Amino acid sequence: RMKEPQETGGTWFGDRRVDPQQKTMLVQDVFSSVAGKYDLMNDLMSVGIHRLWKGAMIDWLNPRPGQRILDVGGGTGDIAFRILERARDAQVTICDLTPAMLEQGRDRAFDHNILEGCTWVAGNAEALPFPSMHFDAFTIAFCLRNVADWQQALREAWRVLRPGGRFLCLEFSHVAVPALAKAYDLYSYKVLPWLGEQVAKDRASYQYLVESIRRFPTQDNLAGMMAKA
Q1: Quick one: which of 28, 156, 42, 36 has its CA closest to 99?
Q2: Which of 64, 201, 76, 216 is nearest to 153 (CA)?
Q3: What element of type H or E holds 169?
Q4: What is the pLDDT of residues 18-51, one digit of tens each?
Q5: How far is CA 226 from CA 80, 162, 223, in A?
């Protein structure tokens, strides 16, 4: 079989094969560009359903006061704020590759009068700037597919979690129902880049985001990667 880029030292940036360091820089460029419209675009692209998905993830997490929780790739604070709504005395660290996304999150925290409980850190999911066995839970929503080395990011999640800690990943993946898959392909390849052009004035970034979903592992393969990590 033809080897995947990650097996040969390369990786995918959408439908392009690139060097891992190049992908990191390209992804940072994407999210620097879309940071100001990121949350609005999530509402438009999913017709608001991303809110239900995130709510379900927080239900599974069931955060408790005093827990230390790491949210990776959640720069705008959407997951962190939901955690603090459930457990006001939890300590949430938000780690994001892109400073512009973190700026959006800090501004939103101020607007929502969230002055405690959040720590904002610029960092790469493949080399987290935190000690081992430090967090009670690790959340990552719509971010893992943007990482250059998925397996390394999973190893880092394992490293920073304490024994008994929990890993929760919310991500787009492959549609199992054929008829629905065709409809989703049509919607994602035609509508989503158009929305990006109209709302965020950035068609190329949303074209990448659509392509990144197609290159992401299937659910079973991702589960295998988690087990390996």
Answers
A1: 28
A2: 216
A3: strand 161-170
A4: 999 999 999 999 999 999 998 888 888 888 899 9
A5: 23, 16, 5
